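Re-run requested by the PI after the first attempt was lost when the workstation crashed. Everything re-entered from the original request form. Ligand of interest: WT7.
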Amino acid sequence: MNSTNEGTNIGPYEERVKDFSWDAVSRELGHEDGAPLNIGWYCTDRICKQGLGGKTALIWESTQGEERKYTFDQMRLYSNAYAKLLQELGVKDGERVAIYLDRVPSLYFSLLGILKLGAIAVPMFSAFGEEALQVRLANCDAVACITSPRLARKLRKARPGLPALKRVIVVDVDDESKLKGDEMAYSVEDAPPVDDFPVFPATEETPSLLHYTSGTTGQPKGALHVHGSILSQYITTKWVMDLKPDDVYWCTADPGWVTGISYGVIGPWSLGATQLVLEVGFIPARWYSAIEKHRVSVWYSAPTAIRLLMREGEEIVKQYDLSSLRHLCSVGEPLNPEAVIWSEKVYGLPFHDTWWQTETGAIMITNYPGMEVRPGSMGKPFPGTAAAVLDDRFEPITEPNKPGKLALKPPWASMFREYWGNRTIYESKFKNGWYITGDRARIDEDGYYWFEGRDDDVINTGGHLVAPFEVESALLEHEAVAESAAIGTPDKVNMEVVKAYVALKSGFEPTKDLELSIMNFVRKRLSPLAMPQYIEFMDKLPKTRSGKIMRRVLRAMDRGEPIGDISTLEDE
Ligand code: WT7
């Protein structure tokens, strides 16, 4: 597995670490100090100005298999049109505009349009149910939402809790009579072209996106990002994904999550790369045939997907010509060594693990093209990034292989700047001059980082974080539930799935029907990801004296580990 840096964009890693500077990245992007820096403009207009307006930016395949292609110039015109539409509807810079769409072309056009207007885009995962949607859009007082006829139905249910939401724009409408109230149908491809939109003169610090993410306590928090993040996303895409002018790049993540934006929009398009988007979810035959048909060369996916492909086996791989593949990367959860070794065997290429978070906005620790992959390791910090493993006093551990808290030294271009409306929690993430990631890791003798686990209660299911509190709150709304707790229980494919512990109100019996009713209740309100796969009924849940549910005890019970005497546990 020893390879060479030759021909890679990054070249020799040690040299890049030594000579890294953000100024050099700015220069590469043609950005001068004090000049505007708008992600929407950089991903479309700038590429057109480089003479690449006619190059394919987006290859889109619908669920039914219809294929459409859009050039950078079309992306420029359609994003302008969305910016103008929102402006005419009275949306101002700094206001929050939600996108609640499946992976359809308008998702990408409207996202760039919102950024061009200087408004803050709030991507919502299309599998979210009414409650998940309402909690997030209410938190940020979204003033407008772009959605589809199918999803508008869920949005309608959330709307009574969203007084700030004044505009609902529905795209891909074939029957306007099905729209309700003030919902407005819009088709960007039929609207008059907007050749010249006065793009908002954002600076590096102008807010761009709010990505909701799950924490240990409370409801999901909106990690606020800025236009300057493009510097991180551009250079990491160039060096980690190793994109070249002729590549066809495919990121399987949904733009409802940060990966689908940082590496499914901003990074690749800031480099002028051609991207594939499949509307359809995970279907091995569709995935492989898309790689073959569109000659995908760089593929960014996730361990759960890779494990599912492993389960499908090698035979199906042989039915497709996957020879276009050149470089593979993965993110979201620990990439097990077996998955790396399997991909080497069947695709002839190892998956390169990348580590980062919603809060970091871009890849922070990774395995580089042309550098030895240590299967199971996350790799090394990105040039310009100072990472460390800290002890309980938040001091760096120098001894190799000793686990501690994974931390990063601020600032970096794509660092989140705030949890929307929650300064206290934001500040609590910084200690001793370090940003504390919430993960545990160790560093080996050669400087490779190894993931050890999370340092908090957040559940990671198939690379998606779920807040125990959000599940617990939804459970409590079920008529039969008196007390609830949610933990992650180990799962072969998804790493973890949600497991709920429930104490019932008097008059309710723990039956199979009730179990299913509770599961479905959470699935509809939150999402299939947040739905407990297992429910265990208890007479009462273990709590501290102050009434806080001890998830730690439940986790130990779940794993069959000793619990100890919980009656003597201190308040925590
Ligand atoms: C958490 C962040 C931005 C990436 C998509 C998820 C876990 C992420 C890895 C990895 C082990 C990983 C961590 C991290 N995670 N990548 N390569 N190896 N764990 O973003 O939803 O903010 O989740 O996902 O626990 O803190 P996110």
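Saved to the shared folder this time. The chain has two domains: 13-443, 457-541.
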